[in-house]
Structure formats: structure tokens, C-alpha cells
Design a protein that fits this description.
Blueprint lengths: L2 H43 L13 H6 L31 E4 L6 H7 L4 H7 L1 H4 L11 E4 L4 E5 L6 H7 L4 H6 L17 E5 L13 E3 L5 E3 L40 E3 L6 E3 L4 E9 L4 E7 L4 E8 L1 E2 L6 E2 L4 E4 L11 E7 L2 E3 L7
Antiparallel strand pairs: 1-2, 3-4, 5-6, 7-15, 8-14, 9-10, 9-13, 10-11, 11-15, 12-14, 15-16
Helix pairs in contact: 3-4
The structure holds zinc ion (ZN).
Length: 358
């Protein structure tokens, strides 16, 4: 292309563009009245109904408005009206008094209130003495708000000494809302009952009453009662136990803190059975909450204890075979209802019956 051609080309292109634009403008001016007329005629015959939202709404509108799906099921949770209000016991900040009902156990009361078994003992030493079998219907128990122990504040106490005494932390005491402690200036008036959440003490362990047999075969007992006798072990157990009652489930306290045995469901008057063969070394009333008690020594280190009997079917010194009837269940002694308190002891120490029963 020549030099002149290079200059001519942009000029020519500009002219062509100008002609096209002019033609477009002219044609719009010619057609515009017809378009305006057509729109007005259409509006008169059928009103325009906007059925869709703009494809791209302004950003702020899009953010504020949820997607709209006409005819769809609304995505909301429906909830039935609750007419019963149940207080969350775990949110309590103070103790309350509970009246023990027939059939209660320390296990059940602790569980119902979401606190440890020990917490029930700690708050009620004056009536339970750390023993589950001291529970009696009608007894008033103090139920602490949380697992822990109450401490009556003395003038010499500090948060550190009290926390350390019960194996808790200073924060446990300060932050427990029921203690109402001003965190800006923490102090407690002497005489105030302060809850130490997670605090604990050793349970007072009352050594279980003993019915032993000495080297010469005579029974020795650590208590006086009408059920003891001097006897020799004449029949030995096989070390395998059978159920002492027809009912094989727990209806009261379990084996654990403050309870040396298991409380098995056994209706008043129902038959109780020797869990293994042996010699009866105690049969009669025994103080301390046992009521009517039968103890069988199996001659192999094991003894089985049967408490709260309504009536006795054996007498002290009697040899008895496994499975034989030893008496009828009842609720004598400290008991919240007819049941069998059953213990297995080895070398005088209570062991967990669930580890031995079939
Ligand atoms: Zn018991």
C-alpha cells in the first residue's frame, strides 16, 4: 500500500461509520412512533403483569432477600406447644429438701438429681451416717445443687485452705454462682454454708459386723445379738453362687459407696435361697439396720449375708445346701420397702456380688 493509501484508509473508514450511525438513527426516528403506538395498544387491551423478579437484583437487595420459591414448603421448624415446665435440676444454685419415698435408694436419689452418691452422704451425715441402708421413708434429705460438699465457713478459713481440704480448686468455690461471692473482693462471712463443687471427703467406713470362725472351728462375732451361736463349719461351698432370690434385678441400692451389698427385688414373704452350701453362723435379729439377718459361712473364705428378712427358715449352726430356702424376704431393720439386701464377703471384706452371681 502507498503512503497516500495509508492516510486515505482511516478517513474512509470514519466516513463509512458515520453513514451507518446516521442510518440507524434515522430508521429509529422513522419507526419509533409505531413502537410507541404498539405498546400503548397492548397496555389498553391487557395490562402488563410482572411475573418474574429481575434476573440480577441490586447487590444489597439480593443480600437482604431470601430466595423466593412460590408454592414451596416453608423451611421452618414447627414445635408443639409445651404446657409442662420442668425445672432443670442441674441449674439449681441452692439445696432443697426431699422427702424419702418408699422404694427409694441413695442411687436413685443421686441419679434423679444429677449429683454423685457421695454428695448425698456429705449433705446428710446427720441422718445417713454414710450408709445407704440408713435411708428410711419419710426421712428429710438435703439435696445439694451440684456434686460437691457444703462447708460451714469459719473465720480462719481461706479459699485456698477450704479448696485444698476437699480436693477442689479455689475457682470451683469462687465461680459457683450459688455462693454469691463478689469476685472483685472475695470474702465469706463466718457461719455461711459454702458449696465446694467437686469437693469430697473420705466416707466414714463402719467396719462391717463380723461373724468369723476361729482356728478351732468356733464362731466368733463382733456383735452381740440373739442370732449368734457357737458352731463348727460342717458343710462347704463349691465357690459358685446361685441367685438368693427369684428376682434377679436391683430395686434399691447397688454395691458401692456406703453400701456393702446389692438390694435385690424380693417381694414381702417371697422365698430366699442359700447362694451356696455352708453352715448358718447367724440367724436372728441384728441391730444396725440389718433387721432379721442370716449369715452362711461357706468354709472356703466366703460368707453370704441376707438382711431384712420377714421370717427365718433356718437356725444358727444348721448345715444347709445350696438353693435351700433360708427364710422369707421382708423389710425389717432399715429398709425402704421389701427387698433382699445380699452381700458376699471374702475374708470378711464385702465384694461385688455382680462379679459372682450367674
Ligand atoms: Zn441394702
Amino acid at each position: 500500500m502507498s503512503t497516500q493509501g495509508k492516510k486515505l484508509f482511516p478517513t474512509l473508514a470514519a466516513w463509512i461509520l458515520a453513514v451507518i450511525l446516521s442510518a440507524g438513527l434515522l430508521s429509529f426516528l422513522v419507526w419509533q412512533p409505531k413502537i410507541a403506538r404498539a405498546v400503548s395498544e397492548n397496555r389498553a387491551s391487557s395490562p402488563v403483569v410482572i411475573t418474574t423478579l429481575p434476573e440480577t437484583p441490586a447487590p444489597d437487595v439480593a443480600a437482604a432477600m431470601p430466595a423466593f420459591t412460590p408454592g414451596g414448603v416453608p423451611k421452618v421448624l414447627t414445635r408443639a406447644v409445651a404446657t409442662h415446665t420442668e425445672l432443670n435440676k442441674n441449674l439449681r444454685t441452692g439445696p432443697y429438701t426431699y422427702i424419702v419415698q418408699s422404694g427409694d435408694s441413695v442411687w436413685k436419689i443421686a441419679n434423679d438429681n444429677g449429683v454423685s452418691i457421695e454428695s448425698i452422704y456429705f449433705a446428710n451425715y446427720d441422718v445417713l451416717y454414710d450408709q445407704a441402708d440408713n435411708l428410711m421413708p419419710g426421712m428429710e434429705l438435703t439435696i445439694p445443687p451440684v456434686t460437691g460438699i457444703y462447708h460451714k465457713w469459719r473465720s480462719s478459713d481461706t479459699f485456698a485452705t477450704v479448696a485444698s481440704k476437699y480436693g477442689a480448686t479455689v475457682q470451683d468455690i469462687l465461680l459457683f454462682i450459688g455462693n454469691n461471692i463478689d469476685l472483685a473482693n472475695p470474702s465469706v462471712q463466718p457461719g455461711t454454708q459454702v458449696m465446694v463443687p467437686n469437693g469430697a471427703r473420705e466416707l466414714i467406713v463402719f467396719s462391717p459386723s463380723v461373724v468369723g470362725v476361729d482356728a478351732s472351728g468356733n464362731t466368733i462375732s463382733s456383735f452381740s445379738g440373739p442370732g449368734a451361736c457357737a458352731t463348727n463349719i460342717g458343710l462347704f461351698g463349691n465357690g459358685f453362687f446361685v441367685w438368693p432370690s427369684a428376682v434377679h434385678y436391683l430395686t434399691g441400692n447397688d454395691f458401692g459407696p456406703g453400701h456393702n451389698g446389692i438390694d435385690l427385688g424380693a417381694g414381702a414373704g417371697s422365698a430366699l435361697f442359700a447362694a451356696d452350701s455352708g453352715t448358718v453362723v447367724y440367724a436372728g435379729w441384728m441391730n444396725g439396720g440389718y433387721g432379721n439377718l442370716v449369715v452362711i459361712d461357706h468354709g472356703n473364705g466366703y460368707q453370704t449375708w441376707y438382711e431384712h428378712l420377714e421370717s427365718l427358715g433356718v437356725s444358727c449352726g444348721q448345715n444347709i445346701f445350696q438353693g435351700s430356702v433360708i427364710g422369707a424376704a421382708g423389710t425389717t431393720g432399715n429398709s425402704t420397702g421389701a427387698h433382699l439386701h445380699f452381700e458376699i464377703r471374702y475374708g470378711g471384706t464385702p465384694v461385688n456380688p455382680w462379679d459372682y452371681l450367674p
